[in-house]
């Protein structure tokens, strides 16, 4: 009961912290980390030591899965080169840069364990980057690149960490061993992920009950991770591949009721998990600093060195990766060189998160031949990187984006594209209706034609801007008033005993669905 009470307390604090962040116009991850930092020193407040396995197997998979479900596969494929350059190339570059700096400052510590620390702090957080990027309205391509990077970079870092850890504990690691580890982890993860798409896609298509479909969706990321771990493959890669595949085919695999319920469920699950994760990161501060015994001057110097290396390495990699690729004729013909504003924003969006802390806690207790090393110092360095990048870079990223004045996505172009496609869809729907018109009363067919016309008009109305109220907005405003009046009558009838509760619930459900549709159409 005590543990359950603590979980409820943490969830309540995470919810209140997120609500406070919205009220103040701040970013929830930053607020929750700061709240956790403060609460970690409150006497008597429950202290939780993060279990690395809980994070890497229990929390990360569902968050990666829902992010992959919502990722556009065509956009991901179109931006695959910059995504891989960041998620693979930058992670390796940062890991070696940090490992070299730490080894220079701690020459008695083997380079392999310094490289392990580099792998720990190398990957930006999958949650923070995309949450902040979407919140401040960065251009769609920048968001896609950051999302794609955050989906894959954990796999690169964890594979590199596994190889470096093998060397630190005395296992002989050669070039062949490294190559095999990469192939086995990545290739095995891809195969397990593709198998997950086939198996769970088949099950989703056969299930007609929305509740069962939702339950299966919750099981998928954990089942895929356990299957990948069983063959020593990358669970991160497996989850991402399965999520991308299921998300891309979701309209063909699930009913409308299932998609609506799954979307609502994952929004709630992600909200709670993300809030809990960032709160728990902040709560680790007291545990992290308790075991430190280095002199303050040295601790400050090495922390600053690692932070500067982590931040600068991202910029040092991004600019050549962005512009040198344009020297290839095929790339130059397909893409124009972007403004320097884009790599600056992407470079500043390198916030670290809970995976970094979990990986740090998974560092070996001792080296080969039971030789000690400053493990508490390494955990502190990882923690400092998380807090500084998340709070400093996350808090200033909106200002950086505003100062650079990145060209936003053109809403008129989006509306024009949507209207054109809606026109084609309406034509197909009208042809289908005409073919089936003889099988229904004329009044029903006429009603369907009017509804189709209204939906087509709504798409074109969005091209008119927001200077005046469009006909569809007027319709939504008036229909909302009518729905409110209907609800009052239904509630009064229930209270007076003229209708049972079941009738009220069904009527309210229909009105709620119509109101949700109205809100989506007028937004």
TrEMBL record:
<feature type="transmembrane region" description="Helical">
    <location>
        <begin position="24"/>
        <end position="42"/>
    </location>
</feature>
<feature type="transmembrane region" description="Helical">
    <location>
        <begin position="297"/>
        <end position="324"/>
    </location>
</feature>
<keyword id="KW-0812">Transmembrane</keyword>
<feature type="transmembrane region" description="Helical">
    <location>
        <begin position="182"/>
        <end position="203"/>
    </location>
</feature>
<comment type="function">
    <text>Na(+)/H(+) antiporter that extrudes sodium in exchange for external protons.</text>
</comment>
<dbReference type="Pfam" id="PF00999">
    <property type="entry name" value="Na_H_Exchanger"/>
</dbReference>
<feature type="transmembrane region" description="Helical">
    <location>
        <begin position="83"/>
        <end position="102"/>
    </location>
</feature>
<feature type="transmembrane region" description="Helical">
    <location>
        <begin position="234"/>
        <end position="252"/>
    </location>
</feature>
<feature type="transmembrane region" description="Helical">
    <location>
        <begin position="377"/>
        <end position="397"/>
    </location>
</feature>
<dbReference type="InterPro" id="IPR018422">
    <property type="entry name" value="Cation/H_exchanger_CPA1"/>
</dbReference>
<dbReference type="InterPro" id="IPR004705">
    <property type="entry name" value="Cation/H_exchanger_CPA1_bac"/>
</dbReference>
<keyword id="KW-1133">Transmembrane helix</keyword>
<dbReference type="InterPro" id="IPR006153">
    <property type="entry name" value="Cation/H_exchanger_TM"/>
</dbReference>
<keyword id="KW-0915">Sodium</keyword>
<keyword id="KW-1003">Cell membrane</keyword>
<keyword id="KW-0406">Ion transport</keyword>
<feature type="transmembrane region" description="Helical">
    <location>
        <begin position="264"/>
        <end position="285"/>
    </location>
</feature>
<feature type="transmembrane region" description="Helical">
    <location>
        <begin position="155"/>
        <end position="176"/>
    </location>
</feature>
<protein>
    <submittedName>
        <fullName>Na+/H+ antiporter</fullName>
    </submittedName>
</protein>
<keyword id="KW-0050">Antiport</keyword>
<keyword id="KW-0813">Transport</keyword>
<feature type="domain" description="Cation/H+ exchanger transmembrane">
    <location>
        <begin position="12"/>
        <end position="401"/>
    </location>
</feature>
<keyword id="KW-0472">Membrane</keyword>
<feature type="transmembrane region" description="Helical">
    <location>
        <begin position="345"/>
        <end position="365"/>
    </location>
</feature>
<feature type="transmembrane region" description="Helical">
    <location>
        <begin position="108"/>
        <end position="134"/>
    </location>
</feature>
<comment type="similarity">
    <text>Belongs to the monovalent cation:proton antiporter 1 (CPA1) transporter (TC 2.A.36) family.</text>
</comment>
<keyword id="KW-0739">Sodium transport</keyword>
<feature type="transmembrane region" description="Helical">
    <location>
        <begin position="54"/>
        <end position="76"/>
    </location>
</feature>
């Amino acid at each position: 009961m005590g543990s359950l009470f603590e979980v409820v307390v943490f969830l309540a604090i995470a919810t209140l912290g997120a609500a406070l962040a919205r009220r103040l116009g701040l970013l929830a991850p930053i607020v929750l980390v700061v709240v956790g930092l403060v609460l970690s020193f409150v006497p008597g407040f429950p202290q939780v030591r993060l279990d690395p396995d809980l994070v890497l197997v229990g929390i990360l998979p569902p968050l990666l899965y829902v992010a992959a479900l919502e990722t556009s596969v065509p956009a991901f494929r179109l931006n695959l080169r910059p995504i891989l350059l960041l998620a693979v190339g930058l992670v390796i570059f940062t890991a070696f840069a940090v490992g070299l700096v730490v080894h220079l400052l701690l020459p008695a510590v083997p380079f392999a364990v310094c490289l392990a620390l580099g792998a720990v702090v190398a990957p930006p957080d999958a949650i923070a980057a995309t949450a902040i990027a979407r919140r401040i309205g960065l251009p769609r391509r920048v968001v896609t690149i950051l999302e794609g990077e955050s989906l894959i970079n954990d796999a690169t870092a964890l594979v590199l960490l596994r190889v470096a850890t093998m060397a630190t504990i005395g296992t002989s690691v050669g070039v062949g061993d490294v190559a095999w580890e990469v192939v086995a982890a990545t290739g095995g993860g891809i195969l397990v992920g593709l198998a997950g798409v086939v198996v769970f896609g088949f099950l989703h298509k056969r299930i007609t009950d929305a509740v069962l479909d939702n339950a299966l969706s919750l099981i998928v990321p954990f089942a895929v991770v356990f299957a990948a771990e069983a063959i020593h493959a990358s669970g991160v890669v497996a989850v991402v591949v399965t999520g991308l595949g299921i998300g891309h085919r979701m309209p063909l695999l699930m009913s409308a009721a299932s998609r609506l319920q799954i979307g609502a469920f994952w929004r709630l699950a992600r909200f709670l998990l993300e809030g809990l994760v960032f709160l728990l990161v902040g709560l680790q501060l007291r545990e992290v600093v308790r075991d430190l015994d280095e002199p303050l001057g040295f601790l400050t110097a090495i922390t600053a060195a690692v932070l500067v290396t982590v931040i600068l390495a991202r910029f040092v990699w991004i600019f050549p990766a962005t512009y040198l690729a344009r020297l290839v004729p095929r790339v130059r013909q397909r893409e124009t060189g972007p403004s320097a504003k884009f790599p600056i924003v992407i470079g500043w969006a390198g916030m670290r998160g809970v995976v970094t802390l979990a990986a740090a806690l998974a560092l070996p207790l001792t080296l080969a031949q039971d030789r000690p090393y400053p493990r508490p110092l390494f955990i502190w360095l990882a923690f400092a990187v998380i807090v500084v990048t998340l709070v400093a870079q996350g808090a200033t990223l909106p200002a950086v984006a505003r100062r650079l004045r990145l060209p936003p996505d053109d809403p008129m172009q989006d509306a024009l594209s949507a209207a054109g496609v809606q026109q084609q869809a309406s034509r197909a729907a009208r042809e289908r209706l005409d073919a089936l018109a003889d099988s229904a009363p004329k009044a029903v067919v006429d009603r369907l034609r009017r509804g189709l016309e209204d939906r087509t008009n709504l798409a074109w109305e969005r091209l008119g801007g927001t200077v005046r109220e469009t006909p569809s907005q007027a319709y939504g405003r008036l229909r909302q008033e009518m729905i409110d009046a209907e609800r009052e009558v239904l509630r009064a009838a229930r209270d007076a005993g003229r209708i049972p509760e079941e009738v009220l619930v069904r009527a309210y459900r229909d009105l709620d669905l119509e109101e949700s549709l109205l809100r989506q159409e007028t937004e």
